[in-house]
Task: structure prediction
Amino acid sequence: MDPTSLPNDLPIPIDDGACDHLPGVEMPAIELASTMGSPRVLDQVSSRWLVLYVYPRTGGPDIDLPDDWDLIPGARGCTPQSCAFRDHHSELRELDATVWGVSTQPMAEQVEFTERMHIPFPLLNDSALQLTQPPLQLPTFTAAGTTLYKRVTLIAEHGKIAKVFYPVFPPDRNAADVIEYLTSLV
Result:
């Protein structure tokens, strides 16, 4: 199975309303460990936009994904999503956007992934599930006994959530959708 491509028959996630409360919410002062060394704080971004894409987990050469991973709506596609943000990173920077990815995946796996896939922005670790607490209360699911985030992308302007992509499908299109949204505001 190639983690960089998506099967044609993936189940499409439905909008269960779990992110309806997010537009207009201020990003909290949550500090998360980063693959780039120093932690990042969600409400401390110097650019106009913060693009915070939250995903379940990436695959890797020594990482077994849970059984039936492809059958869970919205689970598959973390690697193509991250690679799309990597490939569009310079365009996003030109739009004055900072990009961070977040998952509950162990930091060592996130670091390995960023090195192997040449991710130019930090991936943040939220194994403590801080983003499930108010005010964000991001949705999760459980696979193989592990709590993982559902895929959602938050666009915050000067610290306030202006746009929510949820559910995100297909995940490899998310970066282009974000660029289209930000470009429409210029």
Remarks:
- Residues 31-184 form a domain with the Glutaredoxin fold (CATH 3.40.30.10).
- The chain has four helices and nine strands.
